[in-house]
Design a protein that fits this description.
CATH class: Alpha Beta
Number of domains: 1
Low-confidence stretches: none
Number of helices: 1
Strand order of the largest sheet: 2-1-5-3-4
CATH architecture: Roll
Number of strands: 5
Strand content: 35-45%
Mean pLDDT: 94
Distance between the termini: 41 Å
Order of helices and strands: EEHEEE
Length: 66
């Protein structure tokens, strides 16, 4: 199935198997999971949440520093 992903100003469709989890999408996009928060609409998702083909996921980069 295809899931729509937005990372910064780049949008793309990612192909993942049915009943994939957020961690599978993160892996497919090749992003370090410690550097992003994944949002679906107004909800922040956990890596263990299941995605569906109609999902539009936004990857929000975590910025840290002192």
């Amino acid at each position: 199935m295809k899931v729509a992903v937005q990372l910064g100003n780049k949008r793309r469709n990612v192909e993942v198997p049915e009943k994939s989890k957020v961690r599978d999408v993160i892996r497919e996009v090749k992003v370090n999971p410690e550097t992003v928060i994944v949002r679906r609409g107004d909800d922040i998702l956990l890596e263990t949440d299941i995605v569906s083909k109609s999902d539009r996921l936004e990857f929000i980069r975590i910025i840290s520093g002192g």
